[in-house]
Design goal:
The protein is an alpha/beta fold. The protein has helices at 18-29, 54-59, 77-93, 105-113, 123-136, 138-148, 150-155, 161-174, 178-182, 212-228, 231-240, 247-250, 259-262, 268-290, 306-318; strands spanning 6-11, 31-35, 62-63, 97-101, 202-209, 296-299. The chain is built from 15 helices and 6 strands.
């Protein structure tokens, strides 16, 4: 993949230690860290997202953190890729290595494989489609979509006018249904050793692989540490702002579990137990995604000292 910017990537499910490993190894690798995490993009949400502290960021530059306010709606994979591309270009231009770390699979996929480049919005086309719906009804507009793009029509209710209009707009502007373009990006390929198509970057990707029992112990400890650091107060802040915040942070693991406690429907112990359970489910889901990534697995267990783990990761990362 000559000519492409080379990335180093440390993958792992939540509580696997990927970010702390990236932070510890960045100076040795002459690297700066690019976060690949769909929750760390939100400003003010620090403890529940396990975001790098100010001291950590002062020691090692971190990118793609705090990109938007929690009130921002519908932050897309494309917007993340744009921000990450800019960060990677800046890091590489200064002679340093972009070191990616985080657990959001779709962000990795968009960044490495590329995403569907939809046409720009056309207000005239939109007005025409909305006028048709106003005169003949949403169901009639939806039937037009069903004729031209049955895949998208099956996904969108006839009253989801915004998405129906956008799907028809894409067809009118490009001559192709949006679903045909997105099929190439809608999921990972059956071949677990690779992404599909021409990749945008060269990279070495390592996966921190803990036995499930060890990972669940780490999750328990991580939740307890977050509580010590003030997670409950941060969750209450999110709860108090629920009418203004976008849906994504409100549904994030780490905050929503405490809402029944704040309403008096559940004791704190139950909320914490639910948080631990949901975090385990999140980790399991991430592991399922990562099985299809072209990565080198690093087998870890609790008998290994932290320095030995870091040396192992460093050796694999620099091995040619």
């Amino acid at each position: 993949m000559g000519g492409k910017t080379a990335l180093k990537i440390i993958l792992g499910p939540t509580a696997s230690g990927k970010e702390s490993a990236a932070f510890a190894l960045a100076p040795r690798l002459n690297a700066e860290i690019v976060s690949v995490d769909s929750m760390k993009i939100y400003q003010t949400l620090d403890i529940g997202t396990a975001k790098a502290t100010g001291e950590m960021r002062a020691a090692v530059p971190h990118h793609c953190l705090d990109l938007i306010a929690p009130t921002y709606d519908n932050f897309s994979v494309g917007e993340y890729v744009e921000a990450a591309d800019a960060a990677i270009a800046d890091i590489a231009a200064r002679g340093k290595i972009p070191l990616l770390s985080g657990g959001t699979a779709l962000y990795y996929k968009g960044l490495l494989e590329g995403i569907f480049a939809a046409p720009a919005k056309d207000s005239a086309v939109r007005e025409e489609l909305r006028a048709f719906a106003a005169e003949y009804g949403n169901e009639a507009l939806h039937r037009r979509l069903q004729e031209l793009d049955p895949v998208s029509a099956a996904k969108y209710h006839c009253n989801d006018l915004r998405r129906v209009v956008r799907a028809l707009e894409v067809i009118m502007l490009t001559g192709k249904p949006v679903s045909s373009s997105r099929n190439e990006w809608s999921g990972f390929h059956d071949d677990s050793a690779a992404f599909g198509g021409e990749l945008r970057y060269d990279f070495k990707m390592l996966l921190l692989d803990w036995p499930r029992a060890d990972l669940y112990e780490r999750i328990e400890a991580r939740v307890e540490l977050m509580l010590e650091r003030g997670l409950l107060a941060e969750a209450e802040y999110v709860y108090q702002q629920r009418d203004s915040f976008s849906r994504t942070p409100l549904q994030a693991v780490g905050y929503k579990e405490f809402f029944p406690y704040f309403t008096g429907e559940q004791p704190l112990e139950e909320a914490v137990a639910t948080l631990k359970k949901n975090t385990r489910h999140l980790a399991k889901s991430q592991c399922t995604w990562f099985r299809k990534f072209p990565c080198q697995r690093i087998a870890l267990d609790t008998s290994m000292a932290k320095d030995d783990i870091l040396q192992l990761i460093y050796g694999k990362m620099t091995d040619r």
